[in-house]
Design a protein that fits this description.
alpha+beta; 21 helices; 19 strands
């Protein structure tokens, strides 16, 4: 009996030993599987918990004027981020951040929702934090698990000029923008992208390439030192762009236009370089940097004077009497008139059952082509344009690029409207318009609309006898030639002579544009464009020549009245500054 019991005890012992050995073998095999077979996988997982990849944002390229003055720069600010998966009590953390920074917790929560991508991907909470705010957060970082900060380059405008529509602004890449771009690898949520002006047109050059650095993370999710030996990649700043803008001239034109709605553009017609580019009203360019409030944005966006609008390339205006030049060019080139032949202007002209009036109600008396341009006589052109067909007149408009984009290096340029026969038939019906419409077109009224940048291209061709350079802000290695209107030397010479008399004659409508500088000759044309929504728009387009220098000016003042009274004096100030430059620069740098 005892022997049988001993046998059973031994069997149990062996069974227990066998079970223990079996379990140990399973455990050892598992250890082998985890530490040998799946070593790389679990090593990678461990490193993910210990090491974090952090994006390094690249500063955008600088924007400089022709003399190297910095118009757009960068300054370092801070953004606050958090790892969602490491924030067990988000609301408590948001309230703590609000307490330390003075920013409402609802804004922080809204940003978290806006920029959230994944559980363990850094999500932006705040931007444009000051060093003082960061210091307070750093002192209390133990209360903020998963929260970190990094430097972020914001735009800064160190000169006194605005140039806001020209320079443009940036906007943050949010989810709708990212979806529209179609490539999330190029732009992350919260990145800045050029959205208007030069910032948009030259986005690919200014943008730069973001880098990445790998940081060791402690048990609280705090980012520690950079891990050596990883594929850390430095960010590459964007390329600088140098404009042909002269900041002194830009500042002058902004000052002269500050009380008006309108535009002022100065250029070198030989090269096509834009020296000053003003659209008023504008806005302070720095309102789009840092923490822009919705109220600020709505105030700018809903302003009835439309400061966001770039009037130079998107404004559509009747050119008024400046277009008498087109009519004169067409008549001269087709030899359809004798420039010396006079017609009588008594202040009105009967055409069919309609009476057309001259701006001078008492009339100009006997008028030839030179006097008709210099004194801007409507009656002369009402009579002379009847020698042209609509298609002839339209062809001359197209020769100078009207009804087409100039191709200037800015986005959103508009084409304007040149009323062809097809256009007129579509708008009025085949029998709904007559040659009476042509009388209005001859004076730049009626269905014609132009952009101011087209007027710059126009006067540049006049000033260079058809050899103007393509309009541009940034010089290219192989600059394309612009349009080449083909007119005889005789036609070019006559038109220039007549435009000179507009300024030099005692009764010339553009005489207020002459600064009376020895050796300087000024030519130009005024325009008073009727406006159904208020007072007429005031135009002056002109050129100044002295020695080997040429400057063209295009000035438009919305609802300004007579071009000779309002626009021409602004042009005069440009000629004075350009041909008698002051020695000391007006550019005053601001501190960030």
């Amino acid at each position: 009996m005892l022997k049988a019991e001993n046998l059973i005890s031994k069997q149990r012992y062996y069974i227990i030993i066998g079970v223990v050995i079996f379990l140990m073998l399973i455990l050892l095999s598992r250890f082998f599987y985890l530490q040998i077979v799946r070593y790389e996988k679990y090593k990678h997982k461990a490193e993910i918990n210990r090491i974090r990849a952090v994006t390094v944002n690249a500063p955008r390229g600088l924007i400089l004027d022709r003399n190297g003055n910095i118009l757009v720069d960068n300054y370092p600010t801070y953004i606050l981020t958090a790892i969602p998966g490491e924030m067990e009590q988000k609301e408590k953390i948001f309230n703590s951040i609000s307490q330390y920074t003075g920013i409402d917790s609802s804004i922080i929560a809204e940003n978290f929702k806006k920029y959230y991508r994944a559980k363990f991907v850094p999500t932006r909470l705040m931007k444009d934090l000051t060093f003082h705010q960061i210091s307070i957060l750093e002192e209390n970082i133990l209360d903020l698990p998963g929260v970190n900060y990094k430097q972020f380059p914001e735009r800064y405008y160190p000169s006194k000029i605005n140039g806001s529509q020209l320079l443009g602004y940036l906007r943050e890449v949010d989810k709708p923008v990212q979806e529209k771009l179609g490539n999330p690898n190029v732009y992350e949520l919260g990145d800045l992208i050029g959205w208007s002006g030069l910032e948009k047109f030259y986005e690919s050059q200014l943008k730069g390439t973001r880098g990445v650095k790998y940081l060791e993370v402690d048990a609280l999710g705090r980012e520690m030192e950079e891990v050596k030996g990883y594929n850390n990649r430095r960010s590459e700043p964007g390329a600088d762009i140098k404009l042909m803008i002269d900041a002194d001239l830009q500042l002058l034109m902004e000052e002269k236009m500050k009380d008006y709605r309108g535009i002022a553009v100065l250029s070198n017609p030989k090269t096509g370089e834009i020296l000053a580019y003003v659209s008023k009203p504008d806005y302070p360019p720095n309102i789009f940097t840092g923490k822009m409030l919705k109220d600020d944005w709505n105030e700018v966006r809903n302003d009835p004077h439309r400061p966001l609008m770039d009037r130079v390339i998107t404004g559509l205006y009747p050119p008024g009497s400046t277009f008498k030049i087109i009519t004169a060019l067409a008549l001269l080139e087709e030899t359809l008139l004798d420039p010396s032949k006079e017609v009588e202007c008594n202040g009105s002209y009967q055409f069919g059952d309609r009476t057309f009036h001259c701006w001078n109600e008492t009339g100009h008396g006997s008028v030839n082509l030179q006097k008709g341009i210099a004194q801007s006589c409507n009656i002369y052109f009402y009579q002379m344009v009847q020698k042209l067909s609509l298609s002839q007149w339209v062809d001359n408009c197209f020769d100078f690029g009207f009804g087409q984009k100039t191709g200037i290096d800015l986005p959103y340029e508009k084409m304007g409207v040149i009323p062809t026969e097809k256009y007129m038939n579509r708008k009025y019906g085949k029998w709904g318009w007559s040659r009476g419409n042509l009388l209005n077109l001859a004076l730049g009224q009626g269905d014609i609309l132009v952009t101011p940048i087209q007027m710059v291209q126009f006067i540049n061709q006049i000033a260079t006898h058809g050899n103007a350079g393509r309009l541009h802000f940034v010089k290219k290695d192989n600059e394309e030639k612009g349009i080449r209107p083909q007119y005889s030397n005789n036609t070019w010479t006559k038109i220039e002579k007549y435009l000179l008399s507009t300024v030099s004659d005692n009764q010339g409508t553009g005489r207020a544009a002459d600064p009376k500088i020895k050796g300087l000759i000024i030519g130009g044309k005024t325009g008073t464009a009727e406006n159904p929504h208020g007072d007429p728009h005031a135009w002056f387009i002109g050129f100044g020549k002295k020695d080997n220098q040429i400057l063209t000016t295009v000035i438009l003042v919305e609802n300004g009245g007579h071009g000779g009274e309002i626009a021409a004096p602004i042009a005069r100030s440009a000629y004075s500054r350009y041909f008698l430059p002051i020695k000391q620069s007006q550019i005053v740098l601001k501190t960030p």
